Each structure stands twice: as structure tokens, then as C-alpha cells.
Amino acid sequence: MARLVVVGHGPTAYRLIETLVDRGFGGSITVLGEEPRAAYDRVALTSYLTGKSAEDLTYPVPDGITLRLNARVTGIDRESRVVTTADGHTEPYDVLVLATGSSPFVPPVPGKDLDGCFVYRTIDDLDAIREASRGATAGVVIGGGLLGLEAADALRGLGLQTHVVEMGGWLMPRQVDEGGGAVLRGHIEALGLGVHTGAGVKEIVAGPQGRVTGLVKPDGETIEAQVVVFSAGVRPRDELARSSGLAVGERGGIVVDDGMRTSDPAIYAIGECVLHDGMVYGLVGPCFTMAEVAADRILGGEGAFARADMSTKLKLLGVEVAQFGAMDGALDVTFMDPVTGVYQKLFVSDDARTLLGGICVGDATPYNTLKPFVGRELPGAPSELLFTGGPSNMELPDDAQVCSCNNVTKGQICSAIADKGLTDVAGIKACTRAGTACGSCVPMLKQILIKSGVEVSKALCEHFAHSRAELFDIVRVRGITTFSQLITEHGTGRGCDVCKPTVASILASLGNGHILDGEQAALQDTNDHFLANIQRNGTYSVVPRIPGGEITPDKLIVIGEVARDFGLYTKITGGQRIDLFGARVEQLPLIWKRLVDAGFESGHAYGKALRTVKSCVGSTWCRYGVQDSVGLAVALELRYRGLRSPHKLKSAVSGCARECAEARGKDFGIIATEQGWNLYVGGNGGFTPRHADLFASDLSTDELIRTIDRFLMFYIRTADRLQRTSVWLENQGLDYVKEVVLEDSLGICAELEAQMERHVAGYADEWRAVLEDQDRLRRFVSFVNAPGTPDPSIAFEPERDQVKPVLIPLEAVRS
Amino acid sequence: MTVLSEDLSAGLEETGWTRVCAYADLMPERGVCALVDGHQIAVFRTFDGGLYAIGNRDPFSGAYVLSRGIVGTRAEEPTVASPMHKEVFSLVTGVCLDDPGVSVPTYRVRVAGGAVEVSLA
């Protein structure tokens, strides 16, 4: 069995291993990573400072491989085929892959090693920068390229007055020309950043404690800063290859052939450490391709790496910047709008028919529409294409590359859509991997879907041609209060188990009295109809509300007594409450009479509604807590209790950053800060776990509640049926929802708040209302002709000192 | 149960019809369950006033719950969806429309003197 050893565990190494495992590599795989953590998404590194955790960014480690962390390889014995790590561990190999990446280049300026100087490469670097930014007021980034601007964005996000110093004559000199650089500079200065182009660094100076206080330019000007980040390019990490006698380039980089093989046939090299055909690559796309080529060769294939597309599209500091194809040509056509800060330039052949490349600043539409035409005849006159964004019926050729990160062509995407019946971008991503790395081709994927004639039906069911959101608007705007009116005027037939509960939920969200009143009762699913949760034997479970998970001993005793007296199985739920199982329908009112008398109310565990607001114990007791998380959780649970929504809503409040309440797994989660509360939205456990995104920081309690009011009501108005906030947020886009909720871009926030106020004012306990009404109570019987008779099919047997259902034997029925 | 025996003796007729409740007790588009000779029978009143009776046992889960399902239509045919896993049954034929190899029994049902009666025959 072949022993494969990989040196380095970054994205490229991850891609290699994943490809090998996917393709059934039969040997053993050992990975030696220098960092203290497994490979993570370095493209998304900056998101680590805006709410993503290290776990969010970390790639999964495939089963069956051996991963050793903190394992820096110091030597390769090519003769015996053994590598040695810094701590003396030896690892024999049959095939070795070097994926050692690159290291940031720090120019040899005086003061470069002072306390307060950083590079921008790893999660540890970011931790250190974040730490140093506390108490700092200004920062400077040395390097105005792609990574430099990303680092500048990060410093700005950390609250520092930020400067960028670039040696070249303009920003991002590798991606844009001078004209584009000037427009880009305008955007960045408008954000309040200082831009210094054509400027070197004379020295970095420190105060009496040895900490950085500023940067001195060659002209003598001093930029004050307590944080200095070097982002002046990267250098391939080829020292291991060099000391092992492998061929390396004059200016660095491990020399490889088209099959990613080094000068030693048992050793491959991939990623940023590589020199291929005189080129070193620092973009994820070509590096992934190298990983796939190496994997193919290791598996005996003939894959070959060819000079890669260096196209780039990114959004830096809110400004779209893109470059594709060549950066010069016989002719060029420029579109510039100084008012909106848009600069677009196309390079074409001397007959102006063949596209050679392009540059975009401020609006990258031409990248999306025209990049696949590089090297081909343009579908129109260049000036017209730039001015109009391209004709709408523009047809891409099938062999045009759409996703350059994963090298996927339009033809491959179209076949996947046709063969697998794909109807959305998520499906295309899963089947072809297009759009999964940098995501810049996602708009193009959408276009291809639309052009493939895929029409995703938004109809709720056979009775309504509308989506849930459309029905919500119809009901709201037209003031409809009954299902009959709605289906008569806007639907067909008499409804089903899909549309009826949906309409019931809409009517309840808009406040139409008790959910069992009048015609509404017939719309409810069995859980809402009996205000309890049906279990597999036809009995129900009961969950009283325990706001924030806080409960008095007396109330705990009542729950215990009720459970004992009715023979119910009890279990603590994940939402910090107590579930009582095994109640027959005729027992439900008797159980709830006892609970309501003791001061309990419905916990809505049966409804698509707010469930619980979980909390940690918070600053009242906990020695780490910084805010009263229990108090806030109780207030939030009481505010939103009974709120019907497209799906269940869960929340939690943590009293400090240790996050004991697991708020980031909730639809809306709150984490205390020294200054107030951070609000996270769109978290989910369940089938597709998702960490919530940071929505707003350091809110006061009033601001927090107003923001949640708006967020929830906007979700309730616009989500699909049974769509949790996580999926809804992905579909709407976090930025869009922020604009609507935080900046009131649609001008509806006052309405959303008023709607929530009506909900809060109109809340009444559903179970108390049932107990007070003989008509509603009459429905709680097993048999209409024998109201006191229990259902004879229900039986229990003991298990671990409690009851469990005796299941009715089931013949195999499904045909 | 006293009430039960009185009700049953009053409802039993030579033809085998059993009175289960007043028609007015049935909520439109909702079901109830009646216990007749040990059989659980789900009785539904549809929107147009029609009455249907099928077995209460959901054959997919084994639980006696069909009377608690949501009543609706599928292409004009009156239906009930099992509250357990939402398989839809025709109220007319008892056949599961999502899996036509599976069905539940149907029973005759009528209104007599304002009362709903079902027959096991």
C-alpha cells in the first residue's frame, strides 16, 4: 500500500486530499501541518474578524487520513524517503507532496520587527492584530494590492483610522491600470481611508516602550499608527525543497513539470510554493487545479497543468474590482462615469472583434457577462457592450469557462442542469462545484439557469398559484380574515394539508383571534388543533412555557406532580423546558387546568411559532458574565411568545463571549458585549447546521428589541412556507436584509414595528382561552359518541422507571 | 359508561345503523372519531355538507389518528391527510392517493333526524 505524505495543510493540500479520497485512493495519507489548526479557507480569512469563527472557516478532515498539527517539517531524506519534523518525528513516504504555501514578504525596513508590526496570513495573525487594535486608534497597511486592501478593510472594521501605503503609482497595480487605480482611490478615500501611492517606507518608529507609534515615508512625512500590517506580496516557501536539493527557481518557487512533479520523481509540489513555466500563482483557482492534477497523477492519470487564468473579481471595501484576460491590446475602449465611480475598459484585437481582456472598477458586470468571450469574437461593438452591459440575449459558447476556480465550462453546467433536473444554484454548486470557491460566477450561474428554461414553480400547492410571501401580502393588503374568502377569490378547490396550515399561520401572524375560532380551527394541523405535539402512538406531549429556562421550585414541583398524577413520561428539552409525554386528547384539558392554575401558559411547542429563548445564567451569578442574559431572555420570550411564523423560531441569549447558551445556533441569537448586545441571525441546528451571522454589534437593549422586531416581521412577511431563517437569509442575502432592517431601505420599518406592537398587545394564552370556553373544550375527546372513553389502542409499558408506548404491530403496507 | 350505553341503545336499529352524534356537532372540514362495536371510525363533514366515514387507523404508522387529519381536496376529490406523516387518503374510496396500493376501509354514513349514523355493514 502506497504511503502518501503531504507537507502543509492549507486549502491546496485540503483540495488534494479531498480529491484523492473522493477518487478512492487506496494508500494511506498522512498530513503534516505546521499551524496549530487544520486547513481553513484563507480566501475568507477577513470574515474571521466580522463574526465567522475558526470552525466556520475550517475545512472538514476526511475520514481515514492522519493529520498531525504543529508538525513543521525540517528535513527530507530523499534517499531513504523519510521526512523529519521539528520535534524529531519521522514519517516514511512512498510519495511526498509539498504544499508549503507562501509566506508574506516583509521588506527590510528599519523597525519591521517592532511590537505592533504584523503580517496578514493566518488566523493567529488576525488574533494578534485584533488584540493589538484594542486601545489603538490608527493603523497602516504597507502594500496596496489585493491583500493589502483586504487587510485595510479589516483594520477599518476594527475601528482604526486606516492608511494604505503603496510603492507603485496606483492601487492594485496587478489588477487595474492607472485610470482604474485613480477611480479605485476615489472610492477608498471616500470611505475615510488615507491612500499614499508612489510611496515607500523609510522606517517604522516606536515610542519609549518599544511599541510602534508610526511610519515615516521617504519624504519625511510621518503617518501615526499603533498597528502596522505588511502586505507587500508573498514569497513561495521553498526552503525545505531548497535544503533537500530539489530544483528551485532563481527568484524562488519549487520547479515542477506539467504533472506537478519536482526534480525528484517521488516528490510533487502544489500551490503557492510552486514555480510552473516561470510563473508563481497566488490565486486559489490555479492552486486547486494543481491539487487536482497532482491527485490525478498520483492515481496514475495523465492530468496536466497549463498556464492558468489569472482573472480576478472581488469586492474590496464595498468596491467591485475585476480583471480578466490580458491587460493590454491593440485597441482599448474605456467607459468611465466619475459620478458613480465606475471605470470599465476592454482590450480588443486590432479589428475590434476579438476580446483580449478587461478591467472593471466600481461595477464588475462586464466581468460576469464578457469574461467567457476572452479570445473569442465579441457579441457586439465593444463600446455598446460596455455602455449597455451587453445584449440580454448574449449566448455563451458551450466550451466557455464559467467558473475559473474549478474550471467548469458552460457546457458542463448545462448538462448537469438537464441530466439531473437541477432547478437552483445550490444544485449546480453541488453537482459541478462551479461557484463554490470564490463565488464570483454565481450571477452567471443564475443566468444560465434562466436561459435553460428552468422555471421554478412558486405555487404553494395545487390550490394556490402563489408563494407564501405573495399570499401573505394578499391577506395583509386586502384585509382577508378567512380561508374561504382567500381560496374563493385567489385559489381553487378546498385546500390541503399544505395550504391550510400556511394560511392559518398567516392569519395568526396578522392577529385574527384564537387559532381555534370559527373556520380557523379547520385549518390547523393536529398539533395546533389540540395545542399539543402528536407522538408516534397518537398521544400528545405537553410543554409549558418556562421563559428563559428560569423556573421556581414551586413550579417545578407542580410539573412533577402533574406528570406523576397523569402517568406522563418526562424529559428535559434542548430549549431549557420540560416535555411531558403520553397524554391522551381527553387528558389535555385536565392537565392544562392544573398547569394554568399554577401560573403556566402554553409553550407553543406545537406551533410554527416562537419556541424558547434559551439563556446562560449571566452576570447575576456567573463570574464571567458581562450582562444579565436571563433577564433579557425572559423579556424576549415574553415579547415574542405566540408569534406565528413560516417555521419555528428559536432564540438564545449568552451573557458573555463564551456563548454557553449556544446563541449562534439560533434563528436570532444574542451575545453580550461589554457595551451591550451583539445580534446574530440565521443560525440553525437540525439537518443543515448553520452558524448565525453577525447582524449588528453593541446594541442597547432598546435598539436590540427594535432590530429583532423588524427582522422577525420581515422574515414572517417574505419567507416561504416552512423556510427557516437560515435558508431565507441565504436566499435574500445578508447585506440585503441588513439594508432593509437596519437602514430601512424599503421604508417599511415603521410598519414592521407597528405590526409587532400589535402582536405583543394582542397576545393571550391559548390554553387559558380553551379552558374558559366550553365549545372549544368539547373537541378534546377520543370518541365523539363516548367522550369519557380512552382510546383502547393506546397502551404503555415501563422503561427506566417511566412509561413508553407499546407500539401497535405494523404490517408492511407501503406498496 | 352510562352515556355510551344509552346512546348506543337509542341509536341501534335493525338495519345496523349506529347513531354517533348530532350533525350539528360536526365542524365543517374536520373529523371526529366514533367507537362502534370496538371499531374506530373517522367521520368527516366536508365544506359542502357531505359526510364520509373511513377507518381511523393510519396504516402507515399504525396509530388511530386519521380523524384528526386536515380535510381538503385533490383535483375535486375530498381527502384527509394523516396527521402523522401526511399521506393523503380519498374520503370516497379510502385509497391512499400518494400510494394507491394502500387503503383504509370505508363505511356507510347518513343523517337521520338530525343525527349522524354509521353502518359497519
TrEMBL record, chain A:
Family classification: Belongs to the nitrite and sulfite reductase 4Fe-4S domain family.
Domain Nitrite/sulphite reductase 4Fe-4S stretches: 607-744
Residues that bind [4Fe-4S] cluster: 616, 622, 656, 660
Textual note on the cofactor: Binds 1 siroheme per subunit. Binds 1 [4Fe-4S] cluster per subunit.
Oligomer and partners: Homodimer which associates with NirD.
Reported cofactor(s): siroheme; [4Fe-4S] cluster; [2Fe-2S] cluster; FAD
Higher taxonomy: Bacteria, Bacillati, Actinomycetota, Actinomycetes, Streptosporangiales
Gene Ontology MF terms: 2 iron, 2 sulfur cluster binding; 4 iron, 4 sulfur cluster binding; flavin adenine dinucleotide binding; heme binding; metal ion binding; NADP binding; nitrite reductase activity; sulfite reductase (ferredoxin) activity
Protein's UniProt name: assimilatory sulfite reductase (ferredoxin)
Associated pathway: Nitrogen metabolism; nitrate reduction (assimilation)
The protein's enzyme class: oxidoreductase
Keyword Flavoprotein: yes
Described function: Catalyzes the reduction of sulfite to sulfide, a step in the biosynthesis of sulfur-containing amino acids and cofactors.
EC number, UniProt record: 1.8.7.1
Domain BFD-like [2Fe-2S]-binding stretches: 402-450
FAD/NAD(P)-binding domain residues: 3-274
Keyword list, A-Z: 2Fe-2S, 4Fe-4S, FAD, Flavoprotein, Heme, Iron, Iron-sulfur, Metal-binding, Nitrate assimilation, Oxidoreductase, Thioether bond
Domain of life of the organism encoding this protein: Bacteria
Nitrite/Sulfite reductase ferredoxin-like domain ranges (all copies): 535-596
One GO-annotated biological process of the protein: energy derivation by oxidation of organic compounds
Gene: nasB
Binding positions (siroheme): 660
Catalytic activity, as annotated: hydrogen sulfide + 6 oxidized [2Fe-2S]-[ferredoxin] + 3 H2O = sulfite + 6 reduced [2Fe-2S]-[ferredoxin] + 7 H(+)
Automatic annotation (TrEMBL), chain B:
Molecular function via GO: 2 iron, 2 sulfur cluster binding; metal ion binding; monooxygenase activity; nitrite reductase [NAD(P)H] activity; oxidoreductase activity, acting on paired donors, with incorporation or reduction of molecular oxygen
Parts forming coiled coils: none
Biological process according to GO: nitrate assimilation
Keyword field: 2Fe-2S, Iron, Iron-sulfur, Metal-binding, Nitrate assimilation, Oxidoreductase
A Pfam match: Rieske_2
Stretches assigned to the Rieske domain: 18-118
Keyword Iron tagged: yes
Keyword set includes Iron: yes
NCBIfam families (UniProt xref): nirD_assim_sml (TIGR02378)
Protein name: Nitrite reductase small subunit
Provenance organism: Planobispora rosea
